[in-house]
User: What shape does this take?
Amino acid sequence: MEATPASCFAIKEVLSQYEAASGQLVNYSKSTICFGPRLGEDVIGQIVAILGVAQVKCHEYYLSLPYFSGKNKTKLFASIKDRVWNKLCGWISKLLYAGGHEILTKAIIQAIPTYLINMFKTSISIIKELHRLCARFWWGGNVSKQKMHWCT
Assistant: This one.
């Protein structure tokens, strides 16, 4: 679709049909749009005015994931590892039986990275790091002390 006022009116019409059919309203004050470098400022101004949305330079995040990830996924998964470890640190201080450890690990900790792993090709090192964090929690270790991790 070309970036023309006619295209903007077509998009606006489709959105209004969607609103009428679904009963849901589009919140234009929360909506944003970004443009490529080849588009002129006058056309950008017309499009923003027609659609009634704010212009941003570049979308950084969408559904809490970075819009651009590149080849190196280390930074992308660093936030997931931090979220997993912060959850685990909160639970380490609580006295939990083995069943409690298992439920928390399976139900919550393994669910945190699921969406991200399904969206991006995940390296083995990242999977091993997440496994290591869960194993440390399971066997009762924390940042300052580690217990024996038995393998069968």
Summary: DSSP finds six helices and four strands in the chain. The radius of gyration is 23 Å. The longest strand covers residues 32-33.
